Amino acid sequence: MKRIIYVPHDQLNEEFGALATASKSEDLIVLVESARMTSGRPWHPERLFFLISSARHFAKELENHGYKVQYIKAATTTAGFDEIKKSLGELPIYCTQPSSFRQHENLQNYGVNFIENDFFLTPRNLFASWAKTQKSFLMENFYRKQRVHLNVLMDGSKPVGGEWNFDKENRLPPPKNYNWPKYLTHERDEIDLEVASELGYEPKSYWATTRKAALTQLDNFLKIHFANFGPYEDATTTENWALHHSLISPYLNNGLLHPSEVIDAAQKRFAKGDIPIASAEAFVRQIIGWREYVNGMYWFLGEQYRNHNQLNANLDLPSLFRDSDKTQMNCMKNTIADIEERGWVHHIPRLMILSNFALIAGVNPQQYLDWMREVFIDAAEWVMVPNVIGMGVHADGGVMMTKPYAAGGAYISRMTNYCKGCYFDPKKRVGDNACPFTTLYWDFLDRNRENFSRNHRIAQQLRGLDRLSDLPELRQRAIEVLQRAKAGSL
């Protein structure tokens, strides 16, 4: 044995990273299931099940392909390395560059040799070279360069369809009397059941834990959902938890799928001629645009970026985030219940319901970030830090986004069916049944008037604030809403 190749639980791919050059005769492949990973925080059990079972399936696959593999349970990753050294002696350890600053530091201090991370389409140094030339980090600028650089949906030097972005066509509210296609379910095998037994948890059937099943999920999306993905990608409805979303983010984020194969498959499907360009472009933008941009920004902005709290938001995370029964708000209740059920909701509930509430209520960014990391099946440090600190709660003061994603009940009423039958009225900002989103939206602008006084993108909203005749009553109502949120009775 000449070397050890360490494979983290988010790099489960035989063809990329350190495994791309692995020798079946000379390398030992090591996966470590650390106690910190399983019990260090109140992780969602579906998330834990998914990550652990996927890793054990992957280890078994490697063995079936002829590799020498050790899957170790230890207190920490480095404790697992120490255990191997007791039997094998000092061997060099190689690993693909980790996905977080903390893991990178821990492995580097242990003396691990790093191989460049190619689980993304944009090397970190290439993204940094782009970011250094920007006055503002506009994702759209990055995305257009990506389209050209990767030759995705391009007609020579021009974008297919004549436009770079068809976002305006993809903002339809949830349709009425719509027949939503069913999504796949995944049967559990012996490895799944073993993991479930150890966790004391009965897993759901929503998520695959093998590469084969992840590929089936991608194929199902491209055949059944791709064409209608775009129009309703920003809608949310109680009638269907997934709509036409691809549901492949967990597999992209743990390595079972690679973005290059996803884009290749999407382009081949689009070439058949029956996928609207608005849907194809929207999906491509999520993969080569937003996903690559967020990862690039995580590494470019640095380790301390996660600690920003420029709006001085200090409300403790309300208990309703951990218990859907502690609120009468239909939008929050349904969204959190969905997370409790399967550890996932799509990007609009994450941004315009959960993060919107955290933003306008003034929830501490780091507490909210920790919660997001713990409950989502596709969560990773590199994903959540920019998405929460930069986009979700505007805690960086505008480094990533030039305006906060704050909205009142009117937006939720327009883009979801949550307001139907809700105790709260999205049109009201004061009174006992005034929608907390509507109340807190205006109170948020009022509290942060000075912070946003020079931001031309929300000047109109601030002028609207000046026209409110019931501002004193609104401020009092906001105090009551936040008190009830703290007490877990909103």
Could you explain the architecture of this structure?
The protein is α/β, with parallel strands linked by helices. It folds into three domains: 3-115, HUPs (Rossmann fold, 3-Layer(aba) Sandwich); 124-301, Serine Threonine Protein Phosphatase 5, Tetratricopeptide repeat; 307-487, DNA Cyclobutane Dipyrimidine Photolyase, subunit A, domain 3. The protein is 48% helix and 6% strand. The chain is built from 19 helices and seven strands. The chain has helices at residues 35-39, 45-64, 77-88, 101-110, 124-131, 139-150, 190-199, 211-229, 249-254, 259-270, 277-301, 330-342, 347-361, 365-375, 381-392, 409-415, 436-447, 459-466, 471-487, and strands at 3-6, 27-34, 68-74, 93-96, 113-115, 154-155, 158-159. Strands 3-2-1-4-5 form a five-stranded parallel sheet. Strands 6-7 form a two-stranded antiparallel sheet. Helix 11 (277-301) packs across helix 15 (381-392). The longest helix has 25 residues, at 277-301. The protein is globular and about 75 Å long. The mean pLDDT is 95.
How does the SSE layout of this entry go?
Elements: E1 3-6, E2 27-34, H1 35-39, H2 45-64, E3 68-74, H3 77-88, E4 93-96, H4 101-110, E5 113-115, H5 124-131, H6 139-150, E6 154-155, E7 158-159, H7 190-199, H8 211-229, H9 249-254, H10 259-270, H11 277-301, H12 330-342, H13 347-361, H14 365-375, H15 381-392, H16 409-415, H17 436-447, H18 459-466, H19 471-487
Parallel strand pairs: 1-2, 1-4, 2-3, 4-5
Antiparallel strand pairs: 6-7
Helix pairs in contact: 2-7, 5-11, 6-11, 8-10, 8-11, 10-11, 11-15, 13-17, 14-15, 17-19
